[in-house]
Amino acid sequence: MRYNIALFSAFIVTSTTSNAFTSPKATFPLAFHSKAGSSVSTHDRSALAGMSEELDLPCEDECSIDSFPNLPPSVHPGVLSGQAMVDLLNHAKENGYAIPAVNCISSSSINSCLEAARRNDAPIIIQFSSGGSQFYAGKGLDNTNYAAAIAGAVSGAFHVRTLAEQYGVPVILHTDHCAKKLLPWIDGLLAASERYYEKHGEPLFSSHMIDLSEEPIEENIEICKDYLARMCKIGILLEMELGITGGEEDGVNNEDVALEDLYSKPEEIYQVYKELMPISPWFTVAAAFGNVHGVYSPGNVKLEPEILNRAQDYISEKLGSEAPADKKPVSFVFHGGSGSDISDIRKAIGYGVIKMNIDTDTQWSYWEGIKNFELKWHDYLQKQIGNPDGPDKPNKKYYDPRECLRAGEQSTVNRLEQCFADLNCQGILGLGEWKEAANVLGPRRGGIPV
Ligand SMILES: [Zn+2]
Q1: From the CA of 29, how far away is ligand 1's center (Å)?
Q2: Which of 29, 191, 313, 406 is most deeply buried (CB count within 10 A of its CB)?
Q3: What is the CA radius of gyration of the chain?
Q4: Domain encompassing residue 271
């Protein structure tokens, strides 16, 4: 039975430590903390069980372990929230790696992420945009009041919760950009998490991003404060955005914004830190340092990760003796990771980036897998019967959608391997190698090796 720390959640002031998620001041709620010796009621016992146990699914090998050889004991297979999530993020910061955060739009793209995480022996962040959530529900479903986007994200969350344990990897379940007009979407998801928390002692989602970077900074911070207060009560972390990520993603076009808005100022980051910290240290900042969504011709993107370093120095100086020992008080998120230069990625990690988003490059890899599959088997994919092997030969095993989708998945797993390597995020769990499943497609089932 899994020890779920979030069940014992309570605000308890802890001593000063050097990471970003515990405050330098011990005067306000700091972290969820396990109460040793808490009695567990019958109701609570069901909440202690992992998803596999609750659904009576087989849970063997990695699925059944309580913790990983190389990670803090709170970090377990499956979706993390509360202190376990914070312990993992602190581990990333202390050990100089960042976790890939991949935008998913279907069970197939989620499975690619879980497979890639296990292959790289690493944690992963799975995230849904509002458009991706709506797609998960089906584009035919009416989305008035974001009903489809809310239901789609909840459905995706249950998929991730069920499968993450089976793959034996720790997952942070997150939602991506939420602009002001999309706040009802997050409200719906928070309501779902609050209900889930009542029953299971943990939230449905691990974290949410609220992106009010287009609003005046005062309004951005005020709204984030309200959400952080609501979220931290049930073990959810807030990612907020300062400055604007350029380019285009999920229907939001920032291709023509003023250049100066693409770079955050240390004073602004300090303002956020100062105002959010007294509510909870459970927040990250997506500060702008020239980030752009999408992949453009070389030379169009000028990343300046030093901005993050300057902000850490500035805030540490302001905090004086209360600054954390590593002088990196803020945990940063890197948006627009696709197409970025490895040296910029590594610098950003050194300056306190613990999460890097990737979307455009995995969109491409998924499509490229399908494209190459079609190129290879083109003559077998033009009609149901008849191919170069003979006019009566059936083509079912080629046009079965599993074949081309699996090709997209495998191509994405390969692209993600590069991402894990770029982020120093390999061999983190200590589980070692993982063998490819022998019972999925492949010759045994009459499928074709892609
Ligand atoms: Zn982004």
Answers
A1: 29
A2: 406
A3: 22
A4: 2-363+412-422
What's the pLDDT tens digit per position in 414-438?
999 999 999 999 999 999 998 776 6
| Number of domains forming the structure of the chain | 1
Q: What's the CATH code of the domain at 211? A: 3.20.20.70
Q: Looking at the chain, how many residues does it have?
A: 450
* 443 within a domain of the structure (yes/no): no
Q: Which residues of the chain have pLDDT under 70?
A: 1-49, 259, 297-301, 437-450
- The answer to the question of residue 380 being in a domain is no
Per-residue model confidence (pLDDT) at position 22: 55
CA of 58 relative to ligand 1 center, distance in Å: 37
26-to-53, 276, 414 alpha-carbon distances in Å: 38, 15, 45
Residue 377 within any structural domain of the chain = no
CA-to-CA distance for 245 and 334, rounded, in angstroms? 10
Q: How many helices (H) and strands (E) does the chain have?
A: 14, 16
pLDDT in tens, 232-252: 999 999 999 998 777 878 877
The reply to whether 176 belongs to the active site is yes
Q: Is residue 384 one of the residues assigned to a domain?
A: no
- pLDDT value of residue 12: 34
Distance in Å, CA 253 to ligand 1 centroid: 11
Q: Report the pLDDT value the prediction gives residue 47, as an integer from 0 to 100.
A: 42
**Predicted pLDDT of residue 11:** 33
